[in-house]
Design brief:
The chain contains 3 helices and 5 strands, in the order H-E-E-H-H-E-E-E. The protein has 125 residues and is of the alpha+beta class. It is rod-shaped.
Length: 125
Amino acid sequence: MLCRLLKLFGGELVAIDGSKFKAVNSRERNFTKGKMNALAKRTDAKIERYLQELDENDAQETDNKKLTKEELQEKIEWLEKRKGVYDELQQEMEESGESQISLTDCDARSMTLGSNRGTEVGYNV
């Protein structure tokens, strides 16, 4: 106000500067479309590997098994539940039109924090 009263600037141009702040949300709880696709592929590959191990164990029926049938089935069930969570998140992203979703803080986004600081989940304010 003082600068305007003293006519030190005209106010023809207004500039706003932003700052990036790290959010409480971790990278592990921030999902982009690309990350969701990679997680789904990795989960499918693990399920397939466990199914192959089940088939191999059934065929060999030896004492030096890696995991029991029950242990492998538990892992497969856990992975299928996890894949269901990924599918729900991906559907939620598609319905909202957002390119990413953060579970801890829905307003936080994955962004670069500077040229040498890499990427973090945060805010641009």
